[in-house]
Amino acid sequence: GNMEREFIAERQKGLQTYLDVITTHHILSNCELVKKFLDPNSYSVNYTEIALQHVSMFFRSEPKWEVVEPLKDIGWRIRKKYFLMKIRNQPKERLMLSWADLGPDKYLSDKDLQYAVKLLSSCSHPYIYKVTFATANESSALVIRPFSEKGTLKDLIYKAKPKDPFLKKYCNPKKIQGLELQQIKTYGRQILEVLKFLHEKGFPYGHLHSGNVMLDGDTCKLLDLENSLLGLPSFYRSYFSQFRKINTLEGIDVHCFGHLLYEMTYGRPPDTIPVDSFPPAPSVFVVSVLESILTCEAMKNGMPTVSRLLQMPLFSDVLLTNSEKPQFKIPTKLKEALKTSKECIEKRLTEEQKSIHQHRRLTRAQSHHGSEEEKKRRKILARKKSKRSAYESGEEHSAKYSNSNNSGASSIPPAPPPPPLPPAAPPPSTEVPMQCSPQPVVSASRGALLSSIQNFQKGTLKKTETCDYSAPRIS
Asked: Which superkingdom does the taxonomy of this entry point to (predicted)?
């Protein structure tokens, strides 16, 4: 093939752009094939085989259940598998078994986890989907529910068949159309009521999305209450982990409700979070609720609570006709364990948000440092600094040269003093001036000596007689 450097660089750039598009697409980025391509070592396990092993072990102790068929890839989770089930003595009734291993937010002890999962089958609420059977062990859990041919709220929005693979159902819908205003109001009110119920019970959820809302006639019923017990990550975690104000499970539920309301209104998820502007909606009250949850201001200043959302005009006038009394008794000891688990989940989220915030700051700084404008600015500053240094260096050199000229005489070492002279005769009547070079400034005693030397006259010296004893003597 073509191995030219420019061609390879161009292909690499194109591949990186392609991968960026895939990894920023919420559904595609969670696809098993994408994850295996990007990180084959971490996703080499066949979870369908593992799920079948666990389900087979379960059937040994519970022989009344029988697998009809596996429901391949109907969900978005890689480590969660689904099977269509039936009861041997009720062959026409269809049920759905879901199996999942434990996630990173599992903080309950094995004993508390098993007890809490089994407790789900005793929960009775008009807006919670009934659990037929549930059990857990130290590594995974399985839950059996009635199978609904109508599917979930997401299936209604996307006009999809429940048994089809997740990507086929929701990734590229043929027609995008939101629900009617009355459906939005009714379904929204029902979902808010069940969230309020769970919050009051101290039961952590944090997994609201349209695929976890089952339709039973005109009633919405919440699914997958076990997810928070098993410590599984939320469908929208990649969104709310970007915003440090969303740091509680109650806040997560409100944020996820904003996604759900947007999807019900416009027939598709929002392109980006936060949302800057909203398309025309069936009612201004819908936009008002969305603005209170999904805008940048809401992310920074805080979102409304579930109770506050119920008081907004979009939902406050909805009449609920279901009179079923909710029942969900949680023992005090388990409540304390759930509270501790909830605090641990929130703490890990806060730490993750802090880490993401620091990484984003570093990335922005590096991006700014490497931008063309910043490079030009640094070059200009470096040029100015270089000129300033050269100018200062020149001034310093000139100053040194000037000082050297001014102090040149003083810098010459003084001449050695002359030998001692005999006493001088009185000065003559006339003086013979002598030319001499300028002398440096000296002390008083030294000045007198120099003056004496300058005025020296040879004629003033006395004549002397010399006795020469150097000639040889002959006796």
From this structure: Eukaryota
pTM comes to 0.76
Nearest Cα residue to 132 out of 201, 85, 69, 192? 85
Tokens 């879901």 found at:
98
* 425 burial via Cβ count (<10 Å: 0-12, 13-18, 19+): exposed
Tens digits of per-residue pLDDT, 330-383?
999 999 999 999 999 999 999 999 999 898 888 877 776 666 777 777 778 887
- Alpha helix segments (H runs only) across 295-331: 296-301, 306-310, 313-316
Alpha carbons within 13 A on the beta-carbon side of 258:
29
| Distance in angstroms (rounded) separating the CA atoms of residues 299 and 405 | 73
Q: Is 202 left (phi over 0), alpha (psi -120 to 50) or beta?
A: left
The two tokens of residue 396 are: 């310093």
Which residues lie below 8 Å from residue 123, measured CB to CB, with a gap of 6+? Answer: 131, 225, 327, 328
Q: For the chain, how many helices (H) and strands (E)? A: 18, 7
Give the three-state DSSP class for 141: strand
What is the separation of C-alpha 253 from the centre of its chain, rounded to a whole number of angstroms? 21
Spans of all domains in the chain: 1-43, 45-368
How far apart (Å, rounded) are the C-alpha atoms in residues 184 and 261?
7
**Which stretches of 66-223 are DSSP H helices?**
110-119, 153-158, 166-170, 181-201
The amino acid at 132: T
Provide φ and ψ at 202, rounded to 5°: 75, 25
Name which CATH class applies to 45-368. mainly alpha
